[in-house]
Amino acid sequence: MGRPRTNDDAVKERLVVCATEMLATRPRESVTVRAVAAAAETSTTAVYSLFGGKDGLIGAVRDRAVAGLFQDVSAVSMSEDPLADLYALAVAYRRWGRGHSHLYTVLFGGVQSFDPSGEVGVNDPIRPLLTAIDRAVTESVLAGEATSIALSMWAAMHGLVALELAGALDADTADSAFRSTMHAVLRGWTTPAVFSGLRKAEAVS
User: Fold this and answer.
1) How far apart are CA 45 and CA 5, in angstroms?
2) Residues ≥6 apart with Cβ < 8 Å to 70
3) Average pLDDT, whole number, for the chain?
4) SS3 (DSSP) at 195
């Protein structure tokens, strides 16, 4: 009987899933090639054969997280309302984080640094947000530097999602806090004319 294959798709998937969970729940130094291979019920040889080693495996986890978040935020349909679109992007970000808690933790826990002022790749999750912000600035809905607006939005989104994933907020509180906080952040960046209109609308409602 020949030796079992160590480089098939099933083994590769198990390694990525196990590495993701371990990176999200354990100190990074404890996530060794041997530990991941044991969790995936395969050999260390498979890690080197499929990923070239620990760094390659971590890179695969990072790439999965980036691709997943990018796919979800890119799927948000744009409308004629720039503020509504930005809020919809924030909702998509939260939804992805809640649905992929381990990948989210890995993505924003050290494996992937979030730098909205750096170079934005074609499939970078920040691209749809920056595009929507640029549009809002061009249409005189928001006022400010796009990267500064993106960073303030991400700080609010990440803080709320992190608290929710940690169990610090119950479902109703998390929903209410996310809605009110994101609307407040967006409102704070609006131009005076738009801000005044929003305040008048709130007073009427």
Assistant:
1) 11
2) 123, 124, 125, 127, 128
3) 89
4) helix
Closest CA to 175 of 71, 98, 74: 98
Instruction: Tell me how far apart the alpha carbons of residues 192 and 24 are, in angstroms, rounded to a whole number.
Output: 43
Residue 156 CA: distances (Å) to CA of 48, 71, 125, 179, 182: 39, 21, 16, 11, 7
**Can you give the pLDDT at residue 94?**
97
8 A C-beta contact, residue 104 and residue 120: no
Note the pTM of the prediction, 2 decimals.
0.87
| Burial class of residue 24 (count of CB atoms within 10 Å of its CB; 0-12, 13-18, 19+) | buried
Give tens-digit pLDDT for 50-84. 999 999 999 999 999 999 999 999 999 999 999 99
Provide long-range contacts, Cβ within 8 A and 24+ apart, for 33-38: 33/57
Judging by beta carbons within 10 Å of its beta carbon (0-12, 13-18, 19+), is residue 120 exposed, middle or buried? middle
C-alpha span between 81 and 176 (Å, rounded): 22
Average pLDDT of the residues in 100-129: 74
Q: What is the DSSP letter of 28?
A: G
pLDDT of residue 120: 54
Amino acid identity of residue 15, one-letter, is: L
